[in-house]
Amino acid sequence: MIPRRTILVFCALGLAACGGEANTTAPVVTEPPPPTFDPAASVVAFREHSCGLTDAGKAFCWGANTWGELGADLNIDDLHHYNWVIPRALPVATGLTFVKLQGGAIFTCGLTAGHELYCWGGNFEGEQGDTFFGYRKLPTRIPLVEPFKDIAANDRNTCGLTLAGAVRCSGAFYGGGIQSLTSGTKVFQSIYQGPQHTCALESSGAAYCWGYGGGRNGDGTGERLYEPTAVAGGLTFTVLALGDSHSCGIDNSTHAYCWGLNADGQLGDESTDSRLSPTLVHTAVPFASIAAGSTHTCAVGVTGEAYCWGANTYGQLGDGTTVSHLAPSPVGGGLHFTSISIQQLHTCGRTIDGKAYCWGVNNGGQLGDSSFVTRNVPVRVLP
Length: 383
Fold this sequence. Notes:
Layout: E1 40-45, E2 49-54, E3 59-64, E4 85-91, E5 100-103, E6 107-111, E7 117-123, E8 134-142, E9 148-154, E10 157-162, E11 167-171, E12 179-180, E13 188-193, E14 197-202, E15 207-211, E16 225-230, E17 237-242, E18 246-251, E19 256-260, E20 275-280, E21 287-292, E22 296-301, E23 306-310, E24 325-330, E25 337-342, E26 346-351, E27 356-360, E28 375-380
Antiparallel strand pairs: 1-2, 2-3, 3-4, 5-6, 6-7, 7-8, 9-10, 10-11, 11-12, 13-14, 14-15, 15-16, 17-18, 18-19, 19-20, 21-22, 22-23, 23-24, 25-26, 26-27, 27-28
C-alpha cells in the first residue's frame, strides 16, 4: 500500500493505489514537512493548478505538476516523464516571499516586493521572460532590464509593467525574451493577461487592450490589435478581468461590464449575443472584484458575497448545480470572499477569514481538497 503522504501519480504509471500492479521503476517521492497555508492573502487559479500567498508572502501551490509548475522541492528526476499531481497545498521552495503570483497552463511566476521576477515550470515559448528553453522545477530569477511593479500571465505569455508604467511582454506572441511594447505616452498602473489578449489601466481608470479580435479588446471593431487601443464607451475602471474570449471590468460606481464572445452567457447580460464594446452586467449587486475564465465569470460583491454566471458544465459557478446562467447567480455555501480567481474551468477564492476555497473541474487536483472529484460548491483547500 502506498503511504498517505506519498505523492499521487496518474494511473498511467501503473501504481497499485490506482488498481494496477506497482511499478517498481518509478521514483519514490516524499513530500516536504506539512505546510501551514492559512491564513491566505490571495488565491490564484490556473489551468490545472492553483497557487496562493499567505499574509507573510509565502507561496503555496497545488494540482498538476507536469513541468514543475508547483515549484515544490520534491526531488523528482526526469520530471517531464511523469504527470505528477499533488491535490493539496505544498510550499513553493527557496523561502522567497512574493506580493503577486501569476501563471499559465504549465508555469508560475511571482513578483517580489523588490520588483524582481521569479518563474518556475515549463518555458517552451519564452513565456517566463527569457530565452531559456525547457522547464524549471524551482523558482528562478528572470533577468530584467527594468524592475516590474506589476505582472500578468496566461498560458503562453507574460507581461509586466515597469516602475515608469511601460509595458514589457514575453512569450508566444512576442518572440521570447522580454520585449518592449509600443504604448506611446501612455503610463499604465496595472496590467491583465488573457490567453489571446492583454489589457492595462491608466491611473485615470481608462482601459486599453490589444491582441486577437472577436470583441475581446472592446474597441468596437472586433479586429486584432497590435498596440494598446482604448476600450470603447469612455468608461473608467478600478479593475479588469480577462478570459479566453471575453473581458470584464468594474467601474468607479461598482457596476460590472463585460464584452467579447458570449455563447455561454459569460457576459452576464441575460443574452448569448456577443458584444464588441462593454455591456452592463444585469444585476443590482454592487461589485468590488471580478474574474473571467474560459466561458464563465465570477465577481465578489462589496459585502463579500460571490456571484458567478456563464457555463456551468463542471460546477464552476459554485451554486450546487451544473446549470448555466445568463446573469449573476449566488455561489453556495454562505461564504464571504475578499477576492476570486479563474483561468479556465475552475474557480478559487479567498474568504474574509483568510481561508482558500475552490470549485469546478478537478482533474488535476487543482481544487486542493486532496481529491480529484469535480465540485459544484466551494471546498476548502487543504494544507
